[in-house]
Amino acid sequence: MSPIDPLSSDTCGCGTADVASGLVSVDDALALLDCVVAPVSGAEVLPLGQVQGRVLATAVITESPVPPFDNAAMDGYALDSAALAGPVLWRLRIDGCIAAGKAGRALPAGSAAQIFTGAPVPPGASAVITQEDVHRQGECILLKRRPNPGENIRRAGSDMAAGTQVLAAGDRLGPAEIAAAAAAGRKELALRRRIRVALLITGDELRAAGDPLSPTAIHDVNGPMLAALLDRPEVELVTSKRIRDRLDETADTLSGLSREVDLVVTTGGISVGAADFLRPAMTRLGGQLHFAGVAMKPGKPAALGTLGGALWLGLPGNPLAVLTSWVLFGGRVLDRLSGASATRPLRRYVVAERPLSHQPGRCEFRPARLIGVDGGGREVISFPSATHSHRVSDIVGFDGFALLPAETETIPPGGWIEFLPFRL
Ligand SMILES: Nc1nc2c(c(=O)[nH]1)N[C@H]1C(S)=C(S)[C@@H](COP(=O)(O)OP(=O)(O)OC[C@H]3O[C@@H](n4cnc5c(N)ncnc54)[C@H](O)[C@@H]3O)O[C@H]1N2
Ligand code: MOO
Description:
alpha/beta; Molybdopterin biosynthesis moeA protein, domain 3; six-stranded mixed beta sheet; binds ligand LQZAQKY5; Molybdenum Cofactor Biosythetic Enzyme, Chain A; elongated; Molybdopterin biosynthesis moea protein, domain 2; 28 strands; single chain
């Protein structure tokens, strides 16, 4: 299999097809994003119980070895295997019982100590033999086999030596990382502060979900979807506003929000119509546009800019276009702002269930569902017959996007195709 193609490669074509219309390729847009979006400054220290999903600001280094002492890996008997003399069968007297959390005394010659998993191995013992491997006779055990030196002993520092870096700045903290921090003896961690985000929904036609509709109105779909996409541990959604399609209102609101937050996410009003006021508002306010228009379908009008100290991520109005541009750019903006270690979306090759046709032009992100594995062990996807950027029904139950290169017209059943899983 060939390596994954850059999205702007000749194979894709989206870097060339729309150059004339001033669109940047997806790869160029991602590169610009990486250049301009830097982590927010400032850290906070929180207890382990409150760090799930957050990004670490400073590395975690163990101060002492883990485990701190040699201990038993199994329930059984601690003994000195080198001291077993004479022919098998060996008989040893049981001298004491060591449970986890208790200390054992030095083993007298010719004896073994009963020991439980996690208990410290007593001085003088070189191995732990499991209780299934011995025959117990009153206060003695009989052994048919000489345990190997070190058998069933977990050595001090064998998990983490003192001074080991177990987590790096930029690591995102999930259950595994929190476990590592706890094992390293930390009860609190230094985290990047949360990203302050404002959500701005634009459109005269919009009514809140569930509100009665006039004959020309529709329900706001993007507001609830974006609020859900922004519901992440590293995000503080400071405000969510809905405004009308007016230049003054758009500019005033953008200007006010840019003084309060790190990132303003907008939806709608970024295309070329006379009622699209986001770009004119940015121009009026002296904002800087890093890109405005990407050679992709859906999501073509997606834009990124800077206004004062805040970033502006402009998403289109059509709901599938919002989701597509969020998957490509939104998650990555949050990763960069949060200081998380770089993570490109993980793409892989899968095969098409049936013939796939595409109108040549922009490279297309077609919603797709993983439906199983074929006889050759290849993952198979199904997909709708076309991408309709306004259709919400097309995204329900889908697993990601099939990437259709700009010049591709058809892909036969069983043909290789790149797949970008949702990483919401
Ligand atoms: N002459 C051209 N017209 C359009 C172009 C173009 O290049 N030239 N691009 C088209 C593409 S592609 C897209 S995508 C849309 C994007 O337009 P906007 O981002 O300016 O979005 P709106 O015009 O405000 O809305 C588009 C569509 O989405 C509906 N919408 C808006 N907000 C919401 C919401 N919160 N929830 C649900 N639906 C929403 C809106 O009613 C429109 O139907 O422009 C094309 N036009
Ligand atoms: O690119 Mo638009 O986002 O197709 O509908």
